[in-house]
Amino acid sequence: MMFWMILPILFIFFFLRDPAERSVAQHSGAGHDSLPKNEEARIFRLAQKRGAVLTVSDVIVELELGAEEAERLLDRMTDGLRVRMEMGSSGLARYVFTELLRTTDRENNEDVNNNLPM
Fold it and tell me: What local confidence, expressed as pLDDT, does residue 88 receive?
């Protein structure tokens, strides 16, 4: 009996959503607020390779995604703590991975400290 009461809710949830959201949710096995873990990890690795700053175009080329999907992934990762979005002087959105900046700075400082004469 309970199944028949829940069925219309499940129908609305799964079939009447935006198709793009549905594909991300199906791919990740979760709701539309979460990212597939492998996509998130690939974006962080790309940011690490690119000096902790990415554009939508960087993600399009590396992950072979469409522009809307790449922008949606980056926007979902933007939390103001680990990832923040900045507008460049040209009006181009840049996504800055702040924890990776700190890691790069920390590694540079360690290299400098290791090369100091004693």
Answer: 87
